[in-house]
Design a protein that fits this description.
8 helices
């Protein structure tokens, strides 16, 4: 079974400032495009879920509720480390990114608990979940191998295929054969072109289904101007800076 999914980074999620889409505009655009469902995966928080859910139901679009969780091997570890996934450095990171989706009401309840414990117990620069929390709250949840900032891809980017395979296998053990997907993205990035074949190989080795995803940060093409300004606010840079993020 192959699925497709969009990462909607809609709100000014925790310290992220990378989503500029208004919920109703986005839902209406999805419906006009013939999409039957739409997902939300803000960075580290669930603040937008209720408004998103109500708006989707209002316009007869199925809401898929989730989170792009900040993930660490040990949520209690406060050792000073790297700055995060933008460094693409799997050796000294504070956190990774991990996409988790609610499959049913039980999953939604566990998604809330996972996010709450990440704040209450795992907060260190970001609200972080870890392996123990994933195991504790996996019931009713679906997970993917993640984006370039995810634990699996970080290993691949550093030429550690066996380690990537081990992490994918561990996630599959936690969430189950039918609830863990190998995630493929293609935003024209060299790193994704390089690692997608390796991800497909991992999916075959552990018999995990594929899911094709795409980051979504604004609704219409012309919105990229405002989104550019939002990223400048995030990074503390200026529109005149040619080397800005």
């Amino acid at each position: 079974m192959d699925l497709s999914f969009c990462h909607l980074h809609n709100h000014t999620s925790y310290s992220a400032l990378d989503g500029a889409a208004k919920i109703e505009d986005l839902v209406l655009a999805a419906k006009a495009d013939g999409q039957s469902s739409l997902g939300i995966t803000d960075h580290g928080v669930l603040w937008g879920l209720v408004d998103f859910y109500k708006t989707c139901r209002k316009h007869d679009v199925k809401p898929v509720l989730g989170i792009e969780s900040y993930f660490a091997d040990d949520r209690f570890d406060r050792t000073p480390k790297g700055k995060g996934h933008s460094d693409l450095d799997g050796s000294d990171k504070r956190y990774y990114h991990l996409t988790v989706l609610a499959e049913n009401n039980t999953g939604y309840s566990n998604l809330i608990k996972l996010s709450s414990d990440a704040f209450l117990e795992g907060f260190y620069h970001k609200p972080r979940a870890d392996w123990d929390l994933l195991e504790k709250y996996s019931n009713g949840l679906i997970a993917t191998s993640g984006c370039l900032g995810g634990p699996v891809l970080q290993e691949l980017l550093h030429e550690r295929f066996d380690a990537a395979l081990d992490k994918a296998s561990r996630l599959q053990d936690i969430f189950g054969k039918d609830s863990f997907f190998i995630e493929l993205q293609n935003h024209g990035l060299v790193e994704q072109v390089k690692t997608n074949p390796q991800l497909i190989e991992i999916s075959r080795k552990i018999n995990a289904p594929l899911i094709a995803t795409n980051d979504l940060h604004y609704v219409n093409h012309d919105d990229h101007i405002g989104h550019d300004a939002l990223l400048c606010c995030q990074a503390g840079s200026k529109l005149s800076d040619e080397n800005r993020f």
